[in-house]
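Objective 1b. Sequence-to-structure analysis of Beta/gamma crystallin-related protein.
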Amino acid sequence: MKSNQHEQLLTELITEFETFAFTELDNETSATIQGGWNMQVFDNDDFTGLLGSFNYGGKRQLIHNDQISSIIIRSGQWRFYKDRDFKGAAYTLGSLANGQPAYYKLGPGTQYLNNQISSFQQVG
């Protein structure tokens, strides 16, 4: 092989390695890998069926739209909206004042948006 062919092959290999080795993680994946999270959302009202773990930020439009039935908040204040793009009826929920996680069941008989949340964001 000629020298420039070696250089081209090496460049292609380095580019492929960088793409594989340095893929940027989203907030949810990063929180899961690090073992830390500030808020988790669940499909069922007994805190089972994990839909996602979040450190901060929010989601303008949920993949699991209208499926959240329970929430654990370890830190901060979070606002949950009935409609996408942070619109519609909303409830703000947060961790306990003593620093303990707060557990919210959104099931029937509560004032919250059981199976109606379409977006959320951290507000404090």
